[in-house]
Amino acid sequence: MLGVLVNVLAIIGCSFIGLFCKKIINEKIEKVVMQALGVCVMIVGIIDAMKPVQGISGILVLLISFAVGSIIGTLLNIENLFDKAGNTLEKTFSKNKAGDGSSFSDGFVQATMIFCIGAMVIYGSIESGLGEHKTLLVKAVLDGTVALILTVKYGISVMFSAIPVLIIQGVFALLSGLIGPYLLSQANFMQELSAIGGVFVFMVGINLLEIKKISVANMIPALLGACYYLIF
């Protein structure tokens, strides 16, 4: 669990620092940094998205995962659940909106999607549960940097993304004794999971650049598509 705790503390600590940076970073600097961050996130997403299982099956699983996952997520209205969670936190800890007029839930959702989706989350958490923390320590550095910049734009809402990070990564770390060795041995599953996660990260980059608002949360069930390689 050491890697999980370091990751969570990095998000909280850097978000706290970001609150003070809001006072010294003007809107022009914030915009440029957000653009740079958005592009970098998209590049990371592209790199991971190019790792599906080789052959037509890998591409088909990727496409079908998002098609079916998007339908399921929209029917369940997952994005609305994230918004409600963010709005509840806003009413509890904030009097109004984030510093630049963005809603409190926007920062919470964007940060949660970046920090909680991708192969590193599962792979690193399982490793941490087995006593190897290197992957999550690297992730902590990346997440901390992103948290600082996002806090400058969205405010304190980003800090609360540490809660789902603790829950999700903590669960995988605790269960790693049972399922960890099995999942890590499934190369196709990890490969496809990385590709699906990469598409998610790419879409988050689009949202950060404000090119178009994508309901990323409604597509979360697409992650289950990687389980195809655990069954067949």
Gross geometry:
globular
Q: Give the strand content.
A: under 5%
The chain-level mean pLDDT equals 84
Radius of gyration: 17 Å
Strand runs, count = 0
The secondary-structure element order is HHHHHHHHHH
Tell me about the biggest sheet? none
Low-pLDDT parts are: 96-101
Roughly how many Å apart are the termini? Answer: 31 Å
Q: Which keywords apply here?
A:
single chain; 232 residues; mainly alpha; 10 helices; globular
How would you describe the overall organization of this protein?
There is one protein chain. With about 230 residues, this protein is mainly α. Helix content is about 75%, strand content about 0%. It has helices at about 1-20, 25-50, 55-75, 80-95, 105-115, 120-130, 135-155, 160-185, 185-210, 230. Helix 6 (about 120-130) packs across helix 7 (about 135-155). The chain is globular. Residues about 95-100 have low confidence and may be disordered.
